[in-house]
Design brief:
GO molecular function, one term: peroxiredoxin activity
Strand order of the largest sheet: 1-2-3-4-5-6-7-8
Number of helices: 9
Number of strands: 8
CATH architecture of the largest domain: Up-down Bundle
CATH class of the largest domain: Mainly Alpha
Protein name: Alkylhydroperoxidase family enzyme
Pfam families: CMD
Structural class: alpha+beta
Strand content: 15-25%
Keywords: Oxidoreductase, Peroxidase
Length: 299
């Protein structure tokens, strides 16, 4: 059965959301959040489990995202597919692997094959067969297998919600079974600014973080002490300041980690090169992939 072709539950307008709901919407998948906001307690409970599976689980990001995409295929869930193709690419999956998910004759290594068979069996029969369980158990411990079962269950649930509520795929997003070429694969442009004459990474930086869910404008404050980095990242959209918890600098190379706690909990790692007044690099979201960031010195 095809997904509903119209939105059956109207999205809650952003100006009618509470601050927590707006921050969740601004993280990405805004259409999902705006529909779920009609049932705020359900949204909080669902977001907590989804956030754990994406950011705090133990599955390697690549196989986790391939698992989600296989669920989307088996459940014929176009929105789920469209929003996880960029995450899969950012987590190390190749375009060829994503396309191969639709190919019944595709050849996978033994661990990937066991995981994908488990997805197929759960979606078809609600049980993992003995041979597939044995293959999983030869590579994974019980905790990892449990996480896989819950991941498949969570995204089957989300597929049923998305298809039934009629949440649409946005223009330009990959169609079901197609890899596409997400915008995030293109480095973010760097604005042209006059040179300040300053050197080093210490200072205030205005950055653009390019992500499939939408670009973000960030303000990065950095100070360096004895080869270490201190400071914070301010998300102008979420209006949230995230402290840097650890980092190093060597010449123009800076690497640091920040812990996001609001509106969801996850770690981000930034690796960048500073050349005069220009910063270019990448942001790795734990469990969510790696995406480009760039910008210029403000002060």
């Amino acid at each position: 059965m095809a997904p509903a072709n119209t939105m059956r539950i109207p999205p809650l307008p952003l100006d009618e959301m509470d601050p927590e709901q707006r921050r969740l919407a601004n993280l990405g998948a805004d259409a999902v959040v705006q529909v779920l906001a009609r049932a705020p307690e359900l949204m909080r409970a669902s977001s907590a489990l989804g956030g754990f599976l994406l950011a705090q689980g133990t599955m390697a990001p690549r196989i986790r995202e391939l698992t989600i995409l296989r669920v989307a295929l088996r459940c014929q869930a176009p929105y789920e597919w469209a929003n996880h193709v960029p995450a899969a690419l950012g987590s190390g999956a190749t375009e060829a692997e994503i396309v191969a998910l639709s190919d019944p004759d595709a050849v996978w290594d033994s661990e990937d094959a066991a995981v994908l068979r488990a997805v197929d069996e759960l979606c078809a029969e609600d049980v993992v067969s003995d041979p597939t369980w044995a293959a999983l158990a030869s590579a994974w411990d019980h905790a990892q297998i449990l996480e896989l079962l819950f991941l498949v269950g969570y995204y089957r649930m989300m597929a049923g919600f998305l298809n039934s509520a009629g949440v649409p795929v946005k223009p330009g997003q990959p169609q079901l079974g197609v890899c596409g070429h997400p915008e995030s694969a293109v480095p973010a442009p760097v604005a042209t600014r006059p040179r300040s004459g300053k050197t080093g990474v210490t200072g205030t930086w205005q950055l653009t973080f390019t992500h499939p869910a939408g670009s973000k404008e960030l303000i990065l404050d950095l100070t360096t002490v004895g080869g270490t980095v201190r400071g914070s990242i301010y998300d102008t959209q979420l209006e949230v300041t995230v402290p840097i918890v650890s980092g190093t600098v060597e010449g123009g190379q800076v690497d640091f980690t920040a812990e996001v706690t609001d509106p969801a909990r996850f770690d981000v790692h930034v690796s960048a090169i500073v050349d005069g007044d220009v910063l270019t690099g990448s942001v790795t979201i734990k469990g969510g992939g790696t995406f480009p960031v760039s910008g210029f010195r403000r002060g």
